[in-house]
Design a protein that fits this description.
With 152 residues, the chain is an alpha/beta fold. 49% of the residues lie in helices and 20% in strands. Helix 1 runs parallel beside helix 7 and helix 7 crosses helix 8. The model has no long low-confidence stretch (mean pLDDT 94).
């Protein structure tokens, strides 16, 4: 396993832990971390249910928890997310110039991957079994909540 693969696994595991925390709180199990120079500067999970928020997706929560950062920092970051980013989160990724996004899985939901690529964002989809299993469990146990979250 290369150093890059090992770091992907470490940071995706942190994002997956966020997703699991969200699920344990009764929310939607999507987690994200933002990494700069080998360390997590922001982490979060979907808190739409917990906070009654229309915008606190996992990626948005990670940005919020990263706090105010210089543009230079964001241009040097990698964002890890357990699920393919939606339109809102993809827009934020582009707005802040995040150059790389590592996606745990995109089987449950295919977000704006083509648009992100068209904007120069490097994407890697890992097809992580843990991310896939967590979303499958959630969709099976909470179909109404999942449909609400994806707008159906």
């Amino acid at each position: 396993m290369s150093q890059r693969d090992a770091s992907h696994e470490t940071f995706l595991a942190a994002a997956r832990a966020e997703a699991e925390a969200g699920f344990a709180e009764g929310g939607i199990p999507i987690g994200s971390v933002i990494v700069h120079e080998g360390r997590i500067i922001g982490r979060g999970h979907n808190r739409r249910v917990q906070n009654g928020s229309p915008i606190l997706h996992g990626e948005m929560d990670a940005f919020e928890n990263a706090g105010r950062q210089p543009a230079r920092v964001y241009r040097e970051c990698t964002l890890y997310t357990t699920l393919s980013p939606c339109s809102m989160c993809s827009g934020t990724i582009v707005l802040y110039g995040i150059p790389r996004v590592i996606i745990g899985e995109n089987r449950s939901f295919l977000g704006e991957e083509e648009w992100l690529r068209s904007r120069g964002v490097e994407l890697t989809v890992l097809d992580d079994p843990g991310c896939i299993a967590l979303m499958e469990r959630f969709m099976r146990e909470q179909p109404a909540l999942w449909n609400e979250d994806i707008g159906e």
